[in-house]
Amino acid sequence: MAGAKTAVEIEGRTLQLTNLDKVLYPETGFTKGEVIDYYLQVAEVLLPHVADRLLTRKRWPDGTGSSSFFEKNVPRGTPDWVRTVFVAEHGDDGVRYAVADGLATLVWLANLAALELHVPQWKVGPRGGALDADLVVFDLDPGPPADIVDCCDVASALRQLVEADGLTAFPKTSGNKGAQLYVPVQPASWQRTSAYAKKLAEQLAQAVPDHVVSSMEKKQRTGKVFIDWSQNNAAKTTIAPYSLRGVARPTVSTPVTWEEVSSVEHASDLSFLAGEVITRIERHGDLLADLDAFARPLPRDTTG
Q1: Secondary structure of the chain in HEC code, one letter for each residue
Q2: Which comes out higher in pLDDT, residue 48 or 1?
Q3: Are strands 212-213 and 225-228 parallel, antiparallel or unpaired?
Q4: CATH number, span 5-124
Q5: For the chain, domain boundaries
Q6: What is the CATH architecture of 132-294?
Q7: Full-model pTM
Q8: Residue 149 has pLDDT above 60, yes or no
Q9: Which of 167, 231, 249, 266 could lock 236 by a disulfide, CB 3.0 to 4.6 Å apart?
Q10: How confident is the model at residue 15 (pLDDT cuts 50, 70, 90)?
C-alpha cells in the first residue's frame, strides 16, 4: 500500500517507517526496508566514524534510477531527539546539521532515503564548537580507463610516503570507482592537514607523472589517478566508511586490508555489496577500528 507506515521502537524512540517495500536500487530490487536493515546491521561499526561529525546527506527519495539531492540542513519534521548543530559560518544563513549519535538517528536517516552519508575530517565538541582535524584523507579518483586497480598502486605508494613520516594509512574503497586513504593524526588545523596532503600528492605526481595527477584540472586526469587532497578543507566532506552509495547496485564504501590492496587484479575484486560487507564485518570486525590509537603528530615542517 502506498504510504504504508510501520512503527518501530529503537533506543526508546518510536519511529514511523514508510514504504518499506519501495525499490531504491532498481537494478537489483534492493528496497528501502533492506537499506534500513543494512544500516541496522552495520551501525555498531559505522557510528564511531560519524560520531560528532556534521552529516551531509545525499538522498534518493525515488531510488537511484531517479534524481537525487545533497542535503545539509535538517529537514522539516526532524524529531527533537536528533542531535543538531548550527554553524553560522556555512551558507548565507548558516546551516543546521544533523549528527548521527545513535542507532535511532541512523534509522531515521535511512527512512529518508539518505543512502549516502558524508562527513568532514573534523569533529564538533559537546557544545557544537568545531575542533581541529583528526584525520588526513587522500581521495583517489581514477580517470578512465584507469580504475580502482590503478588506485591501489597509488595507495601503496602513498602508504610508503606516509609511513616515512611516522604515520599510519588505512585504505577503503569509495564504494563507487575509487578509493580513499585515512591517516589519523593528532589534532591539527585543517590548513596544516590540507597542506600535508597536497605536499604528498604533488610529490607523487612529480615522481610518476604518467600515472598520477594532483591538479584539479579534469582534462589532465584521463588514464591517471587524481589524488584529491582538497577534501581536507574544513568545508569539504568524504563518504563515510560503511555508507551505501547511490549507484546502480547497493555498493558500500568498504574498509579493506593492505593485502587486498596489493593483490587486487580486477576492479570487481574490490566492489562490495551490502550483504557482502555484513559478512566481512563478521569475519574481520571493523578494519578501521581505533583509528585514534594510531594518531601521531604531523611532520613539523607541515605548514598551512
Answers
A1: CCCCEEEEEECCEEEEEECCCCEEECCCCEEHHHHHHHHHHHHHHHHHHHCCCCEEEEECCCCCCCCCEEECCCCCCCCCCCEEEEECCCCCCCEEEEECCCHHHHHHHHHCCEEEEEECCEEECCCCCEEEEEEEEEEEEECCCCCHHHHHHHHHHHHHHHHHCCCCCEEEECCCCCEEEEEEEEEECHHHHHHHHHHHHHHHHHHCCCCEECCCCHHHCCCCEEEECHHHCCCCCEECCCCECCCCCCEECCECCHHHHHHCCCHHHHCCEHHHHHHHHHHHCCCCCCHHHHCECCCCCCCC
A2: 48
A3: parallel
A4: 3.90.920.10
A5: 5-124, 132-294
A6: 2-Layer Sandwich (3.30)
A7: 0.96
A8: yes
A9: 231
A10: very high
Would you say the C-alpha torsion 199, 191, 74, 123 has a positive or negative sign?
Answer: positive
pLDDT in tens, 248-267: 999 999 999 999 999 999 99
